[in-house]
Design brief:
Layout (H helix, E strand, L loop, with lengths): L4 H17 L2 E2 H8 L3 H13 L3 E3 L4 E4 L1 H10 L1
Antiparallel strand pairs: 1-3, 2-3
Length: 75
């Protein structure tokens, strides 16, 4: 599956935030990238549906093995 450049940017941002602060939520991505909340929400849904991230019931985001490999490759 080809990963879009925008998706790579989000995955890299999640990785950096995880390393910096541990727990990551969508609002952290919003603040880091400066994008609108709905824009980030749509991308988080796409990343989750395509199997790059996991999101728990409280909204905390983690990279799964596929997402982590991609993020580490570009970071």
């Amino acid at each position: 599956m080809k990963v879009l450049k925008a998706a790579e940017n989000y995955l890299e941002t999640i990785l950096v935030l995880q390393q910096r602060q541990g727990a990551v939520r969508s609002i952290d991505v919003v603040n880091e990238l400066g994008y609108a909340k709905p824009t980030v929400s749509v991308m988080m849904k796409k990343l989750r549906e395509n199997g790059y991230i996991n999101m728990d019931k409280d909204g905390y985001i983690t990279l799964n093995s596929t997402g982590l490999k991609i993020a580490q490759k570009i970071y």
